[in-house]
Amino acid sequence: MSKSQKSFRFTVLAIAVIVASTLVIPASGGYGVGISLLVPYDAAVEAESFVPPVMTLGVCDTAGPIEVEGSILGTTPTAYATLGAAFTAINSGTHTGALTIEVCGSTNEAAIVATLNASGAGSASYTSISMKPVGGVSRTITGAPAGGSPLIDLNGSDNVTIDGVNAAGNALTIANTTISSVAGTSTIRFIGGATNNTVKNSNIQGSVTMAVSVDGGVILFSTDLVTANGNDNNTISNNNIGPAGSNLPMSTTMARSHPMTGLSLATPIRNSLRG
Predict the structure, then answer these.
(1) DSSP code for 37
(2) How far apart are CA 102 and CA 218, in angstroms?
(3) DSSP letter at 35?
(4) Rounded Cα–Cα distance for residues 152 and 271 (Å)
(5) How much is the pTM?
């Protein structure tokens, strides 16, 4: 074999190592040849091409008005039209770990109750939730659920902090505009063993009209038929609690959960009760 023939043979063998030909049979019959190139994996190139999601706590990364970020799943800032929609996503496991809810704009929850279930209930999985307004503007979460319902329902939820901030222009108002004397009507309800939660620095408004002997109030600590331990160790601190508009509530805060321990409502925890 001549030198040129040996060179040609070597080149063909080298190409055969790099190029894999696969026989393709089209649906119409006949034959064709598909070519697959074996490209070496380069981890450094992949690392350089990866761009992590942009997340800045305290800043609205999306149009909002509600933005959620998780520390394990759902880490990319995700916008929701309402707080109720955000809670539904958390309940379904879209965001897990330590969660941040940023109120980037005002929402109207309409007649839908924003229900946050306990971690471990269904697909919900979180260690803590921090919710606060951002953007340097006053935000409002309002709605008019049916009488007998809360606007925000902490249904066995633990380690949730709702902080209206009241600094650098950031402020939060949570208002249930429903006028009702039906038991259970409230703006924020703790139920089913909701524990170690804090609501602070917020304007919380409602227009409940039930008698004081009936369960209901702007803030309602309801029953615990889940753990039988009560809704324990919750703090209501430095809030303005009062009417939605001119409709004076008959009760600002009511606790009907027994047994229940560790509820902080008054001195040295300051709340302004308006009416």
Answers:
(1) E
(2) 23
(3) E
(4) 19
(5) 0.75
Identity (one letter) of the amino acid at 102?
Answer: E
Whether 27 has a pLDDT exceeding 80, the answer reads no
Cβ(233)–Cβ(199) below 8 Å? no
Rounded Cα distance, 134 and 124, in Å: 25
Please indicate, yes or no, if residue 59 is contained in any of the structural domains. Answer: no
Exposed / middle / buried, residue 71 (Cβ in 10 Å: 0-12, 13-18, 19+): middle
Instruction: Look at residue 168 in the predicted model and tell me its pLDDT.
Output: 95
Does the structure show a pLDDT above 80 at 249? no
| Burial category of 165 from C-beta neighbours within 10 Å (exposed 0-12, middle 13-18, buried 19 and up) | middle
Domain around 13: 3-49
> To the nearest whole percent, how much of the chain has pLDDT over 90?
59
As a whole number of angstroms, the distance between CA 102 and CA 92 comes to: 19
Tell me, yes or no, whether 115 and 41 share the same domain: no
DSSP 3-state of 90 = helix
Residue 62 to residue 104: CA distance in whole angstroms: 8
Amino acid present at 97? G
Q: Tokens in use for 189?
A: 């309800």
Which residues have a Cβ under 8 Å from the Cβ of 112 and sit 6 or more positions away? Answer: 82, 84, 143, 145
Dist CA 84 CA 8 (whole Å): 71
The torsion of the CA quartet 151, 202, 105, 117, rounded to 10 degrees, works out to -40
- Paired sense of beta strands 78-80 and 66-69, if any: antiparallel
> What is the distance between the alpha carbons of residues 83 and 106, in angstroms, rounded to a whole number?
10
Domain assignment present for residue 182? The answer is yes
Number of structural domains the chain divides into: 2
